[in-house]
Structure prediction request, 420 residues.
Amino acid sequence: MLIAVLAMFLQQTCGSVGRVLPAVLAPLIILELHADPSWVGVYFGLTAVAGLIGQLGSGGFIIRHGAIRMSQAALLSVGGGMAVAVVGGATGFVLSALVGNGVAAVATPASSQLLGRWAIRRYAPFAFSITQTAIPAGILLAGSLGPLLAQSLGWRGTMLVSAAACWLFALLLQPLHRRLDTEATPTHAIHWSDFRTTITGVLAAHELRALSFACFAFNGMQAVFIAYFVTWLTVLGYDLVAAGSLFATVIAIAIPCRVLWGWIGSFYIAPRLMMAVLAFGMAASIVLVGVFTPAWPPLAIATVAGVVSATAMSWHGILLSEAARLAPSGRAGPVTGGVLSFGQMGAILCPSVFALLLRVTGGYAAGWAACAIPALLVGLDLLRGVRVVQAGPTGHETKMPSQALRTSQAAHRQDQQGGP
Prediction:
């Protein structure tokens, strides 16, 4: 299990650096390309569209080629997307968002497929949370090193360095392909109906449907925070290096928080209740981000942003471990891809709504407040659905509810038959 966790941690760290760099370097890119700041939201909306397609269609490829092989494909795609953006200007960024991020979206389902096999169920939230600390770790590296490298290499050189790192690590994963991809099924058929099967499989089961809606709200807020926070700080008067450093500092909070929430969700309280608490926390803190002014002291801004990081950037391990728990044996990757596809829908809609509100109102406050609404509604829904579980060593039930099991198994049979 340790090797699987470490490999997926490094894979996701390297990939997340590449995916977040355009947001960190956005002020420099906007200045050189003479673009409107609202296009940052459009770019990340396009990456979410590509991610949605990639995650919906990833299940069959993971089963056929294995989690490590698809992790390599994801890293190659991230690097290729950055290279295309560097040489292609505005058109290159569009291609980078659509092509590069489409394949890159398979990274998390591949990780879930691997951990679903190797992680002990009792410790699954904890193991998934450890792996998912790779995302804020990558964002931290991008936020702290990106602006510094850009001072000497420019934004183009910085993105090319990150692309090379992704390609190098994809090569380093090669020895693990034969060791860990032992359940790959080269004869597994891939059908267009896989897209529909993935969606219907998670929507038909109440437990997976609730997770899907939560993923929509949480990932949408995360996407807006990543896309606009550095630019928002520069509007408030921070220079790029200071804004990037503050961003990296608050993102660092998500690393211990993801592990902490996973620990609590594994041993003390139900994961659903844990997610409800996080939903209310992120809704309240993101509204406060919108009322920042230049008069706010840096410590106050960092404190509020830190709460956003501890909530909106720290829910992943809990949610993904629940999705894997509800999945039939060997289907953690496809089920996780289905749940995450709703997160991509949130990442499409929320930055796009934010960009629209920014253009219409000319300010940032309305966009930040709008992000809080889905999270608040999800928090209320999760809280209503919490069942009181008698205190025990795990803090939550480990058996899959029968309705979710029947639905997922039916989707699995339909997938194997190629769909109607």
Notes: The domain at 2-177+188-416 is CATH 1.20.1250.20 (Growth Hormone; Chain: A;).
